[in-house]
C-alpha cells in the first residue's frame, strides 16, 4: 500500500503510461504511431476500436478537427521517439569513444612504465649478440659476417689484415649472399648496442656504422648481379670501365652518371641513352667506392689495433718486469744479508727515483741513401710504395742525485730520449713468409744513427734518424722485435748508466 500522496502520484503516472503504451505503438515500416492491434475491449477481435467521443466533441466545440489533432500528436510523439533514439545512439557512441580513450591511455601509461625495461632488453640482446660472435671467432666457427666483423672488433686480439670485399664475396652463390645481406642488416641494427667503453676518435660508433653501411652496399651490388639477371658482357664491360680507378675519379664518375640518368643537360649528345648499362655501372661505381673506403677504414683500424696491442704489451711487460725485479731484489737481499727496509749505498747514489716519462709521435723520416736504393724486379707489375707506420719516441728524465740538486718539480730537468717504438705496417706483402728486417748505420754526425727497414714487394725501404746510443736487448727492459699480423714491431730502450763509488 502507498502511504502518502507522492506514492499515489507515482502509481497514477505509471498506470497512465502503461495504458498509452497499450494503445499506441511505433510502426517500424512507416515510422508512424498507430493504435495498437493488441488492444481489445473483449475477446471478440472483430469489435470496433474504442473512440473517445467526449474528447472529440470537446475539440469540435473549440473548432479543432479531432483527426488533425490526433495526427499532430502522433507526429510529435514520432519526433520525440526519433529524438530519443538519436540521443541514445549518441550516448552509446560517446561511451564507446570514452572507453577506447581509456584503453589507449592505459596502454600509453604501461608503455611509459615499461620503456626502460624494453630498452634494457634490446640492449641485452645486442650485447649477447657480440658475445656470441666473439665466441664463434675464438673457436674458429666464424660465419661469413663474423669474418668481416673481425676487422672492426678491436676489442678482440686478432690477426687481421686489410679487408678486400672482392676476395670475401668471390665465389659466393645467391643463397649465401642473401644470408650475408640479412646478417649485415642485423649488424647495423645492433651497432647502437655495442659497448662504447673503449671508444676514441678512431674507433667509435660512427666508424662502426660507416663500416657496416659500406659492407651493405658491396653485398647488395653483388646480390643484384647474381639475382638480377644481368648480362655477363655488361658486367664485364662495367668491370673494365672501373678497374684501376681512384676514389676521386670514381666519385666524379658517380656524379656524372647520376646527372645523365636523371636526364640533365649533361646528356645532350645521348651518351647515357643505354639506361640499363649505366644503371649497372652506377651500382658498380658505388660498390667500388664502398670497397675502397672499407680498405681505408681497415688500414686505420689495423693501426689502432697495433697501438692497443702495444699498450697492452707495455702493461704486460711492466708487470713482468715488476715481478722479475722484485724476485731479483729479494735474491740480492738474501745474498748480501740485507734486511727488508735497508737501502744499499749504490742505489742511493744512483738516485733511481722515477721522474716523468711520456711517449710522443715520432716521424723523423729520412731519405734512404742513393747507394741503397734498389731497382726492383716487380716495378713493372706492382706500384712501389712506402709502408705506413706509427712510431713513438719515449722521452723523460730521472730524479738522479744531480737532478735533485739542480732542479725541482717546478723547474724540472730537460727530457732526454730513452727509447723508441717502431710499428711498420706491411699488410700486402707478396711473400709473407719472408720477415722484414732492419739495419742501423752510423750517420755523418756521431750523435745520431740511421735505422732502415727492409721488406719486400711492393714496399720500398724506409729510414728514420734516431739517437746513437747502445740498446737494451733484454725483453725485461722493454725490448721487442717481432713480425705478426702484417705489423713489424721494434721496441727498444737505451742503456742507463749509474755512477757508483
UniProtKB/TrEMBL annotation:
Positions of the UniProt region annotated as Disordered: 1-52, 306-346
Family: Belongs to the CACTIN family.
Domain Splicing factor cactin central: 107-297
Keyword terms, alphabetized: Coiled coil
Coiled-coil region(s): 67-106
Pfam families per record: Cactin_mid (PF10312), CactinC_cactus (PF09732)
Residue ranges with Basic and acidic residues bias: 1-25, 331-344
BP-aspect Gene Ontology terms: mRNA cis splicing, via spliceosome
Biased composition (Polar residues): 32-46
UniProt key word Magnesium: no
GO cellular component: cytoplasm; spliceosomal complex
Biased composition (Acidic residues): 312-330
Record-linked SMART domains: CactinC_cactus (SM01050)
The keyword Coiled coil is annotated on this UniProt entry: yes
Domain Splicing factor Cactin C-terminal: 378-501
Protein name: Splicing factor Cactin
